[in-house]
Amino acid sequence: MARLEPDDGQRVSPFIARLARALYGLAWLLATPLVVGYLLARARRQPAYRVHWAERWALRWAPAPAGWAGARPLWIHAVSVGETRAAQPLIEALLTADPGLRILLTHMTPTGRATGHELFVTRWPDRVHQVYLPYDLGWAAGRFLARWRPCLGILMETELWPSLCAQAACHRVPVVIANARLSERSLARGLRWRALTVPALAGLQAVLAQTPADAQRLRRMGRDDVAVLGNLKFDIVPSADTVALGRGWRALLDAGGAARDGRPVLLCASTRDGEEALLLRAWAAAMGAASAPRPRLLIVPRHPQRFDAVAGEVAAQGLVAVRRSQPGWPQSAAQADVLLGDSMGEMAAYVAMADAAIIGGSLLPFGGQNLIEPCALGVPVVVGPHTENFAQAADEAIAAGAARRVADAAAAIDAALALLADPAARATMGAAGTAFAQAHRGATQRTVTALGPWLRAQRS
Fold this sequence. Notes:
Helix content is 48%, strand content 13%. By secondary structure, the chain is an alpha/beta fold. Strand 12, helix 15 and strand 13 form a beta-alpha-beta unit. Helix 6 packs across helix 7 and helix 12 packs across helix 17.
């Protein structure tokens, strides 16, 4: 069992912890009408939010595959798309190593669930089963654990739910957090609510962090035995078929251009709310003075419910976006200046189309999105000032010469256009990115080794 040290004032008495959880559970209960309203509001833009409501309150679940009767699956919680993709190399390694293993994969968002289905259920339909993790009400967490009886729970990255962790201890389900990361902002929030977070963190069987900085912040929350194993996302190998799809799109675009001159493509990857307008304004200003061949701007928003809104932002700048979902893609985009990647699960294809990439979430204070995939595919990267979610990866990519940091969206467009005009610099940065990504691989095997005691116990 983990030890909780009282350093830095992180001592929480059992009575205070129980009282805090009781008040926390009451707050969840009182917030239920708001949660229902939230789901209904989201369902207007994403109809997938209308289904599987019973799972969210632990009332009913989709039936498990045949052969699961009496099984004690390994449970992995990946809240949304990013965590699900981060879990990919770990899940693949675990299923390959143990042909008898069954995995219960839980999510909180429909996009995470759709990503998990695409990555795992289609390949292992009898061995991977998906449900939503219930909201963090004590009785709901208890019903979930009693129904599925997992042999081990693995929480991906930042998911620390007080009632769930307490119920796991009551049901004797060991729980670890893998690929753990904790930003300074999350640390400050955790310390404000230390009566909930400190006991939950202490109750985990193991904490496996991405970086030494993450480990240090976790120690400041009272957890002294944190292992640093690296970032699982470095071990994600983009699908060869998806990469080939993107390169095929690019070849068709180049062949369909009026001058057949191979217009360069600038990718804005995983953009967040407010960033597209800033990028489009800077792009329109830069294109006013651009000479032929004019580059193409490819925008891929982070969240699918925003696809239509981003198309509207493009139109507001007097530009026309050709969408991935439109008939005739990509030939229909041959003459276009702006492309809109309105699909899920094809980021590797969009990266494969690009000559340079601006990483979304880093231009406004969202913490940044994943820059590892473009680096791994040899695409030069530009990031903004906000990279807290990938702080070490961003800093090391910049130090390796694979990425450049800028102050804002206008500077990002300027830096990216400079790269598009300099093939030698792009080649140097692309090679540095590939080497950087390869040098940081290996977290999957280290994580599997760390999980070994619990994995062996579930086989015995």
